[in-house]
Amino acid sequence: MRTRALAAVLVATLVAAGCAGPQGPTPVAFTKIDLAGAPVTLTPVGESLLVGVRRDGQPVVPALLRRDPGGAVTEVPATPATPYGNLARWTQVDTDGTRLYAVGGERGGAHGNVRWSAWDGTASGVVEKRQAFSTFGGYGAGDLVGVVVTPSTPAIVGNWENPTGGFDIATWLPVGDDWIRQPSAGTALEASRDALPFPIAATRFGAGIMVVGWQFANGREEPVTWHSTTGVTGWTKTPLPAPSPGAAMSVHCDQSDCYAAGRLNGSLALWHLTGDAWTLLPDTPNYPVTDKDVLPAPVPTPTGVLQLVSEGDTLKALHHTTTWTVHTITGPTGKPTAAVAIGPTLHAVVGDRLWTAELDSLR
């Protein structure tokens, strides 16, 4: 009898383990949200979600859609002022809850450079503000990372040629309808012979801005952050803990801490800022990340942090508390490019569709 009882327990244990699968918990189903356009950017606005979309073949290609907590979708009219504004793909959209600011771009011209457009407005509509060609283009121009709204000012972040070589990280501030580039010389944003900076993503942090990316220094690629204390002033540079070459590629910040995601030696890496110190999260599951990939920003959860990655066409959600849990996702296929949480709901762009899931299902 005892032998039979032990055998029954063993069989039940094996069946339960088989249901979970060798890769972790039972797969989680995501829900597709149909939109009039392909989503590109996600921006929380209170309890609503602002989705930047691209519409091929429409009179106005860039569009903004606002999805309220009940699921109703309304359009925020976007009015271009230039031919390239009419073709722009959103790079980043940000808000202080009242004003909306956006940056978009589309390649064109004889050299195929990105032609940038700057937009602002409210929930009633955004308008492209025509800029002189030399504002974001011409000799010495680099790329734009996006736009960040701080308590004191909105700012555009990108890079611009350093007079002695390489590119500085650059910032622009609005003066009327014009965006004016601010000097980087003498700040932590300046390039030098010892360290060449490459910003990749930016977001608000406290009263300032957190920029993540990498620098070429000491003969290798090093993940780095740049943080301003107020608006675009008081910049400091902080190399991230890195046992191997790599870069920080996306970032999410709350009022008191930040998470950054990136790559080290071609594999996924995540860092956490608490107080004044960044730490590398240990034992991160091994997923390949290249310099051509786009990593969604990490999503804080009530018990840790969530990172979306893809394995082939299969979406995975990696949840870190004190250890890692790997969830396989059913529904979406393709690569994730954006993710945010509003209350208990995760919103993600995977491929060219918007998907949602409840965070409780991803613990």
TrEMBL record:
Record keyword Signal present: yes
Annotated signal sequence range: 1-20
Keywords assigned by UniProt, alphabetized: Signal
Protein known as: Uncharacterized protein
Organism of provenance: Actinokineospora cianjurensis
